[in-house]
Amino acid sequence: MRIGLVRRGSRASTPRRLRLLALGLAGTIALTACGSGSGSDGGDQVLRIAMSAGNIPYPSTPPNEGYEGYRFVGNNIYDALTRLNLDQAEELPTPQPSLAESWEPSEDLTAWTFKLRQGVKFHDGTDFNADAVVFQFDRMRKPDFEYYSATDAGRGAAAFRFITAWEKVDDYTVTIRTSQPYAWVPWDVASIYIPSPTKVKEVGNDAYNQSATGTGPFIMTEYVDGEVMELTRNDDYWGNVPKLDKIVLYPQAEAASRFAALTSGEVDWAEVPAPDSLAQLEAEGFNIQLGKYPHGIMPRFNQFRAPFKDNVPLRQALNFALDRQGTAALINDVGYPASQWVYDGHPAFDVDNNSGYTYDVEKAKKLLAESGTQPGTLKLTMAYPTGGSGNMFPDVMMQKLQADFAAIGVDVTLEPMEWNTLLTASLEGLDKPQWQHIDILWASPAAGMMPSLYSTSFMCVLPGGSPNAAGMCNQKATDALLTAAQQPDVAEQDRYLQDMMGAAVDNADFLFWMHDLNLRVLSPRVQGYVHPQSWWVDFTTISME
């Protein structure tokens, strides 16, 4: 077992390593793969993955690197009280039992009692129980707790927006309380991973990533920051024991690098390779996976200040200026135009307001004039990621956006950012001095994957008193969201969420740009893969032919 957090001074060396791989000059990955038992000899069940992240996600609770960290690291090392049913592709996944076997809300939806699964062991052999749940909740929410982790608290704050208290009832029962009637606790707890309290106490928060220990289907057996993570099957897993012996993760931020690694046989799975490579990949027998799922590129206007604060016509003008079909064509139709934050057919899609924003240059120019802006006078700065989890193809998409806005007389300066830096800006808020120069911020939300996630983008003021990170305050949308969250009936929740979506479209609160089709490409050796309507994947169903 080799677990080492190796940081070689600066992340600046990572792009060079990726370029070498793309040129076929980096033998390191191939050697590491063979050393991990990931070759095809001996019949080993080893799946090697080229991630779009610029670094291996930290195996903390939760991981970093966006939802790619959850998909490949979090959901494999850890379990939560609930889990999504990702072993099917027919419908949007919903919360199912995991470390909790069942749960029951109070009549007023302010207290949820979870009955925990008995007989579950952490990877270090210690017992999972109610004390472990309380330990992790305290670790993420109580600053005076000895093992409080400010880093994990920041990354996992969204799951706790309405959760105010928790308590052990007995060794296998916990109760979670909320600040208001709230129906989405089972969704929230699906992303609150439970680590071994024994391991956290033994190594401390600062060293924990080198010793990450959960109850999940895979055990971390190798971790070299910036290079590789190896996950080995947990033969004593309480649930469906994986078919794979190992998963080996490589960070490869450049689409060309992922394509090169796949076609050279160095990996078996590539996230979002270059879209113009799909014909070649299909001809060579690779499996192209595409499908609708809750994810989109929906940039956010800085509504803390001019020019977008209280200026609906300007926000509408830029929405009408976007040539979404042209953008889709540039990326070989692995994404498609968005008319709302969620796609047509999603239960929260507002069918009464489904026209959205078409490509209409003349209407955009007219609205620009109504906004009080003369063509050629408006100069904007837009921040976007250079790569990273679920961001499709930012460079080519941003160049198209820049040209579209120039066509109506709006000048956009593009500001590329490392993915985690952009995530920090989206969490801290565009009113902060270091981010307030940004006029438009790229956003790639899990658009409708979990209803509890809407609060980040749609609420004027988040529970706890923090303002919307982009300064957006559409009271009609906020009220609809809060009402939806208090409905015990799912159909009623969806009805109010549709009202929220319609209010956001009317107010042009986002750049409604593109929906993603969840592109990934697999070697024909990969069997049993299910392409879910989710960011996340169930790796326990997968085997290697």
From TrEMBL:
Residue ranges of coiled coil: none
This protein's UniProt keywords: Signal
Stored InterPro entries: Peptide/Ni-bd, SBP_5, SBP_5_dom
PROSITE patterns for the chain: PROKAR_LIPOPROTEIN
Highest taxon of the lineage: Bacteria
Gene3D superfamilies reported in the protein's UniProt record: Dipeptide-binding Protein, Domain 1 (3.90.76.10), Dipeptide-binding Protein, Domain 3 (3.10.105.10), Periplasmic binding protein-like II (3.40.190.10)
Stretches assigned to the Solute-binding protein family domain: 94-428
Signal sequence residues: 1-35
PANTHER family named in the record: ABC TRANSPORTER SUBSTRATE-BINDING PROTEIN, PERIPLASMIC BINDING COMPONENT OF ABC TRANSPORTER
UniProt name for this protein: Solute-binding protein family 5 domain-containing protein
